[in-house]
């Protein structure tokens, strides 16, 4: 999760990926947003000016984001209209084209040039190259710098001056989500592993991909092609993805096509009846059109009479219910070094830092990337040294105050109370550090966790667990005070994806893929270690 405070020292008039007011910095004249994951949206909802520049895809997604409680309450009829969190920013958000240098006037006589590059992270995610007044920085946002990606960057005509050594970047503001020296498999390798595992399952298996944030779209498309099936998403996601220029727009659907409804219904009902479970009639009626009600009842009666027993093969029983595959949307340390080496900048500023952990482990920019930079002095290392020195001084003062209190006072007859000045000193010795949710991800490394749930049609009489009891509960859903709600941007925001309460996810399609959303609390907006696929 990003800990970057938005301030670019080379260009103090701008802010990137952090929009809260900073009393110690001048108000920004322009803002920039790299992507829609929620750890990069701090303060954006209340922003009224200045303009926020981003990619076209990021703008389209952001204007359509809805919080989980609002989606559920709208689906239950509690809200009369959809509540899109950032819709009021439509005039503030300005899209910029990719790989096109664009001049932005900050104030009369003051301009900067900004160029956007794809970050290989999620739809709309970009890097920003900012140039002006003889300075140049590259802000990566969240990035997956796989070998092919770095090779393309090195040849990009808008960056070749910096990768060839003709010019030098003053600083790269780098995504340092993973700093353990552990290699990652590429995205392509992870998808290949997944497809090999899925190929072992029967043709009538339904896979549920539990994507809790944006960034796994390549996996969906690969599965769609391999299984020769559309990807079934809820109406909410379909509206968002429909606003983008998809590379494969025909791969998405919010429900089965009319030509396949009959086969899906028969297969699903046959499995439901053969397991002897209770079948709620309105489940099938609601999922189809009103004109299909008679068809539902007729097929239901037919299957009840037959009462076919469900017989699963030994091979099917032996297959795991959960498939794990490696897939990370962030770079490994090796990949980051390869990326930095391509530019050889003067300095690196890490955008994801657990200060306490870095101090404890002695982690420095010089150690991580020093050999790939053109300078040996790093601003972040100086800041960390100052924090370490201050913490050491505070610790010494605390020990001295404690010893003075014990030596100068006789043993009291009542419990010893700390002198007032000592208490004040202790309260003033607290050193604020960056908050980070990446402790679990910076230990012995790994890749993210994703779930894909293949289900047999015999399980289709119940809603997937991801829809959760909250969506079926009585009464409106309320946001807990002090707990940020997801916006489907989870880090990642990153913010979790939840199905519309008005529609059930398509889950009866033969050999199909269904994207079943779920609510992800804010403390889960972090990169995890492995990618998984559940087969329930």
Automatic annotation (TrEMBL):
Keyword rRNA-binding in record: no
Superkingdom per UniProt: Eukaryota
Keywords (A to Z) from UniProt: DNA damage, DNA recombination, DNA repair, Endonuclease, Exonuclease, Hydrolase, Nuclease, Nucleus
GO CC terms in record: nucleus
UniProt subcellular location: Nucleus
Biased composition (Polar residues): 398-407, 414-427
GO MF annotations in UniProt: 5'-3' DNA exonuclease activity; damaged DNA binding; endonuclease activity
Main location: nucleus
InterPro entries: DRMBL, RibonucZ/Hydroxyglut_hydro
GO biological process: DNA recombination; double-strand break repair via nonhomologous end joining; interstrand cross-link repair; telomere maintenance
Domain annotation DNA repair metallo-beta-lactamase: ranges: 322-354
Positions of the UniProt region annotated as Disordered: 398-427, 449-536
Similarity remark: Belongs to the DNA repair metallo-beta-lactamase (DRMBL) family.
Protein name as it appears in the record: Protein artemis
């Amino acid at each position: 999760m990003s800990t970057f405070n938005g301030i670019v020292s080379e260009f103090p008039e701008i802010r990137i990926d952090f929009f809260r007011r900073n009393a110690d910095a001048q108000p920004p004249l322009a803002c920039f947003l790299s992507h829609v994951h929620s750890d990069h949206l701090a303060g954006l909802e209340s922003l009224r000016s200045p303009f926020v520049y981003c990619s076209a895809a990021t703008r389209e997604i952001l204007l359509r984001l809805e919080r989980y409680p609002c989606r559920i309450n709208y689906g239950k009829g509690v809200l009369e209209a959809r509540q899109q969190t950032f819709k009021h920013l439509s005039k503030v958000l300005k899209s910029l084209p990719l790989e096109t240098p664009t001049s932005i006037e900050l104030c009369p006589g003051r301009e900067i040039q900004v160029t956007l590059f794809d970050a290989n992270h999620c739809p709309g995610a970009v890097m920003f190259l900012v140039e002006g007044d003889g300075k140049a920085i590259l802000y990566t946002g969240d990035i997956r710098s796989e070998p092919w990606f770095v090779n393309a960057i090195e040849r990009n005509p808008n960056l070749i001056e910096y990768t060839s050594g003709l010019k030098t970047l003053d600083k790269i503001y780098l995504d340092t989500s993973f700093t353990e020296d552990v290699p990652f498999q590429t995205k392509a390798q992870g998808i290949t592993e997944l497809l090999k595992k899925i190929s072992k399952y029967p043709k009538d298996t339904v896979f549920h991909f539990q994507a809790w944030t944006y960034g796994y779209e390549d996996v969906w498309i690969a599965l769609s092609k391999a299984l020769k099936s559309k990807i079934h998403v809820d109406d909410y996601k379909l509206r968002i993805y429909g606003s983008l220029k998809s590379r494969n727009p025909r791969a998405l659907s919010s429900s089965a096509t009319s030509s396949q409804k009959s086969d899906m219904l028969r297969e699903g009902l046959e499995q439901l009846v053969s397991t002897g479970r209770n079948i709620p009639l309105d489940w099938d009626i609601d999922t189809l059109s009103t004109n299909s009600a008679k068809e539902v009842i007729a097929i239901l009666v037919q299957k009840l009479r037959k009462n076919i027993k469900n017989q699963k093969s030994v091979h099917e029983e032996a297959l795991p219910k959960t498939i794990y595959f490696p897939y990370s949307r962030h770079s490994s340390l090796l990949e980051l070094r390869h990326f930095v080496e391509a530019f050889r900048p003067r300095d690196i500023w890490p955008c994801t830092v657990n200060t306490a952990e870095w101090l404890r482990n002695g982690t420095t920019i010089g150690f991580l990337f020093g050999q790939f930079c053109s300078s040996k002095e790093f601003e972040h290392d100086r800041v960390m040294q100052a924090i370490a020195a201050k913490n050491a001084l505070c610790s010494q003062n605390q020990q001295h105050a404690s010893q003075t209190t014990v030596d100068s006072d006789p043993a009291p007859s009542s419990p010893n109370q700390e002198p007032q000045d000592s208490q004040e000193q202790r309260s003033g010795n607290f050193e604020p550090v960056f908050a980070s949710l990446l402790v679990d991800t910076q230990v012995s490394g790994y890749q993210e966790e994703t779930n894909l749930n293949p289900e047999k049609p015999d399980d289709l009489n119940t809603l997937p667990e991801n829809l959760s009891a909250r969506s079926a509960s009585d009464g409106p859903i309320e946001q807990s005070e002090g707990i940020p709600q997801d916006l489907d941007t989870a880090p990642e925001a990153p913010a979790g994806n939840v199905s519309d309460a008005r529609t059930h996810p398509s889950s009866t399609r033969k050999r199909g893929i269904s994207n079943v959303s779920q609510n992800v609390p804010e403390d889960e907006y972090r990169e995890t270690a492995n990618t998984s696929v559940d087969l329930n």
